[in-house]
Specification:
This protein is α+β, with helices and mostly antiparallel strands. The chain folds into 6 domains: 72 residues, Phenylalanyl-tRNA Synthetase, Chain B, domain 1; 110 residues, OB fold (Dihydrolipoamide Acetyltransferase, E2P) (Beta Barrel), CATH 2.40.50; 191 residues, 3-Layer(bba) Sandwich (Phenylalanyl-tRNA Synthetase, Chain B, domain 3); 71 residues, Phenylalanyl-tRNA Synthetase, Chain B, domain 1; 204 residues, Bira Bifunctional Protein, Domain 2 (BirA Bifunctional Protein, domain 2), CATH 3.30.930.10; 88 residues, Alpha-Beta Plaits. It is 27% helix and 28% strand. A hairpin with a 6-residue loop joins strand 4 and strand 5. The chain starts with a strand and ends with a strand.
Amino acid sequence: MKISYNWLKNYIKTDLSAEAASTILTDTGLEVEGLEKVESVKGGLRGVVIGKVLTKEKHPDADKLSVTTVDLGLDEPVQIVCGAPNVEAGQTVVVATVGSVIYPDPNEPLKIKKSKIRGIESFGMICATDELGLGGSHDGILVIKEDIKTGTPAQKYFDLEDDYLIEIGLTPNRADAMGHIGVARDLKAYLNFHESANLELKWPVAAIPAAEASKVDINIQYKAGAPRYAGATIENITVKPSPDWLQTRLRSIGMKPINNIVDITNFVMHETGNPLHAFDLNIVGNEINVRLAKKDEKITTLDDVDRTLTEDDLVIANKDNAMCIAGVFGGADSGVTNDTKSIFLEAAYFNPVTIRQAAKRQGLNTDSSFRFERGVNPETIIYARDRAISLILELAGGDLTGVEDEYSEKIENFKVDFNFDRCRQLCGVNITNEEIITILNNLDINIITQDNNDAQLEVPNYRVDVLREADVIEEVLRIYGFNKVPLPEKLNSTISLQKGPDKEKAYNNVADYLVSNGYSEIMNNSLVNAEILTKIKSEVFQSQNDVQILNPLSNELDVMRQSILFGGLKSIAFNQNRQRPDVKLFEFGKVYSKRGEKYIEEQKLGIWLTGKQLSENWNTTGNKTDFYQLKQVVENILNKLGILKGERVTELKSDLLEDGYTIQIANQATVEIGWINAAILKEFEIKDKVFYAEFNWDKVIDLLKLNKISLSPIPKTQFVRRDFSLLLDKAVKFDAISAIATKVDRKILKEVGLFDVYEGKNLEEGKKSYAVSFIFQDNEKTLTDGQIDKIMDKIRLQLEQQLKAELR
């Protein structure tokens, strides 16, 4: 939420700097996320002064230039060459002196220097309106009609005032601070308590002339959605641009002025926190209906979007049609235009839940819905309406012909039982009863009854977040100051020794390894679009297993993700569309699913690899990445964690992957690895192959419990290597060879490796050739050829019998 500091000071008298006020607001719970100096004219016209043209002569070498002398309030007049056709002696003008900087274009500063123009020296510049950044006119220099003392700073003459824009990260519970007056209230409470400032909020006068009942008949058909609805009819107005002061106020908080009527409603909303809306009275007719929309009722909103309403949407309608979505967005056909002569002004309190749900259904987030969703002050509805009426009569003329206030069921203030001793106990400070009462009074919390340390309090109904004693104590403490709570010299705590794997250490080990190998960590949103599974049509993830969001932030984020795969593919597509085709990514994240009535949450680690292995260079071939590159990374991670023991590889059946396998450790499916199905890549518009590995991180952490530290001495002997060149059926996998060999000997056979694969010419159809290495080693004694030959013969025999292998 944006607050103008100059605007804020209209409601509280203070000499605090904007920086000091921001610190106070943050300390009291209105966290200031940004403080920015705002100049009403860029550069502030520093070095620009009022001058008087004393003489004017034609330039000797240029028909369109004049040589002038100008009195700038200095000891001597200065000479300035001017090209404006309307410059004359005796004029009072605005002069940018040598060394000053002006901004004819906000992005292109112009520094004024001593110069020679066609041989004549010039010591400044007589300015036009647009050259000063004050307007768009460049018909000639700006001539001032008043008699102004020469040398007067232009900043002073034009009454330019620098402002500060305070950006407040308003939490949803602080509905009381949605306007400048609400923010000023917190500032007042703090200063009155800490500095005994005795400040009062200055509410602007909102006096209106007497008026009869409104000519418009107000029918609240859905009272639960609009407990209070007030209005007024104003006729014979003139719609025109707002005066400078009003436009300045709105621009200071980033709003664009539209016309005097709309600007006034926006101004009062940001002043009081109460949204208002003005309807063209000709469209309203003689009847306002606050009702629920009809089934499939249509409305065109101010953004020229045709919207279909539901039967749960609250609308403001005339006799026949909905004119706006109540509290959310106005209609394009019923708003104020330049031709509007009479208006119906709406001020209301709408049910926050009703407005929030309507805004979410329609995918809208407006200044109005932002406030109504949190709960505006129902007691300032009439003040806000009358404040707007008085400004409209002042700035747009017209006649107030009727007012109305429908308050079907009064929203009462809250009653809270309060104990002063308990307040001190929870705050941790010895704050006196008098200090507590001072704070409460400054926050408009009244004491109804008090008996020693017990009291009953009345909390204003706009403080929707203060309903319990603990809430009141929090209010006391935030004004008293969290920083004033002393820390004891000794802090007692209970230390518990956690048994089991160190999850943080495991995460850091793996993340550091991946980053050191060129992978980038990503973090995708856990909320995704439900339509992704409809497009993918996977048997692995079914739409009925989605965890639905009951109140989604948008239609694009309506379910929890079942897989982290798709987020990584989006990241790859994003990079490839920006000429970054070589991508190595990983993500630690949770996935969510629903099985019947049971909700499941799992932690995953996903790794994506695509593009070339090495960056383009003159001495590299830039080979494409492949499955085995990712396989090596996966095995290194498992080795690094110490859990690659007794693993078993099984075929992976998944319509998400074209091919791949599952690594099972201790009979638990721990890692799935393969490459993504081409149809899925096409859906994400990815052209290159993408290799993907997914760790069930919860199971990885669980397997860490099985880790045992073991030590073994370095072997004293050399290893021995033997090779087989085998002719095999194409369907045979290397894992089968490794498993057979390991079963034959587990004592001295240390490693089985595949170092060459051949398929094609000179081989039978359906056959392939594998070159397989066998590493033998005994840690204590040197192996003999006879020992090794005996084992190799057994391995050969088993390969022939089980796999029908032939030695080549």
